[in-house]
Amino acid sequence: MTLLEMIVLGFLIPWITAIYIYRCAPKIFFTIAPIAALIALTINQLGIHAGVWIIHTKTEVYLLHSLFVDLGIITVAAVWFSYLMIYQKRNAALLYLCFPAGMTGVEYVTTLMKLLEYGDQWNFFYTLLLYLWGFITIDWISRKLVKLGIFP
């Protein structure tokens, strides 16, 4: 995958969907988005450098292998999750089912496309657990922001 394709698919398209949330709940972009981006960048860089997974992009700069996905689709997924959980008060069980499974599904498609490759010690179950942990963390932070009066 070229860097341009990564930027369009992993960053621009997800952020276009987030325009709606910005209009409804701009506080999420100044709170949840930076935290989600930090979590995504940290986890992906650790995974890449530990050899747990390999992202096949046409760039020699390791940070760019996941940067646009970390700041794009993963961050936007956390923003949508927080928005639906806190502002829309959607069913938590359904959100906890759909978001980690959906993100794992996206990774599954990227493995089929040969854009992502797991090392021998990693599999989709671990990916699902990692996304579940991430969304639990985002939910916990969102609830703290509610208690602090920042949300909604």
Describe this structure in words.
By secondary structure, this protein is mostly helical. Helix content is 76%, strand content 4%. The protein has 6 helices and 2 strands; from the N terminus they run αααβααβα. Strands 1-2 form a two-stranded antiparallel sheet. Helix 1 (3-17) runs parallel beside helix 4 (62-87) and helix 4 (62-87) runs antiparallel to helix 5 (92-112). The longest helix is centred in the middle third of the chain and has 26 residues, at 62-87. The termini are far apart. The mean pLDDT is 94.
> Which sheet architecture does the biggest sheet show?
2 strands, antiparallel
Count of DSSP-assigned helices: 6
Outline, from the CA principal axes?
Answer: globular
Give the integer mean of the pLDDT values: 94
Strand order across the largest sheet: 1-2
Total number of strands: 2
**Low-confidence runs:** none
By secondary-structure content and strand pairing, the structural class works out as: mainly alpha
Radius of gyration: 15 Å
Strand content: under 5%
